[in-house]
Fold this protein.
Amino acid sequence: MPAERDSGISIAERISHQLRDDIMEGKLPPGTQLVEVDLAADYGASRNTIREVLHQMGREGLATFIRHKGVVVRSMERKDLKEIYAARRALELQAINGDLPLQPALLDKMLAAINAAERALAKKNWRNVGTLSLQVHQHIVAQLGSRLLNEFFLTLCAQLRLVFASEVDESLIQTPDWIERERLIHSLLVKGQREPAATALTAYLDDSERTLLAVLTRLKNQQAK
């Protein structure tokens, strides 16, 4: 599950966070309709509150309005992916290269997510493998000690999950080597070898971006036919 949040938030923010979590867990793939009246009933909230939530999701790049269809979960494009990875590099590498001491509790959470991803992989639960991988990187960013950056990165992770969902067969992108590389990064951080960890993470992010760009390119070519 995502990091604990401040309980003193508004109803609209709580619903927005829940929908974002649902996207991150693969429960709301691209193109899913977000029907105002249904969401109001599901969450026991007013239509005005749900309207505020949908506007917020639009601002976060998680939803969009389509004529004759209403508000839907957004489909990501190549330019979106490039922006996501630019932000990932800035945040994750700063967390590793920064001057703040690494928090052992977060490294433990990182390891727990890696181990859980391996169990999900063994069960061929590809959606969970992707979700747990995102959690690994959330724990890296949490080393920065900023609640604001944590929230921003959660939104990036939700956007990234929408890219994962663009691949009909997620087993093609949620392969064992990613988990092995995350375990290596964790091992280097535990040993205090931050520079090699940053090098390994840079290579990981470069390869991950290339893999997902290929997915979006293939999807775009299929739609153009």
Summary: The longest helix spans residues 194-224. The chain has two domains: 11-73, 78-224.
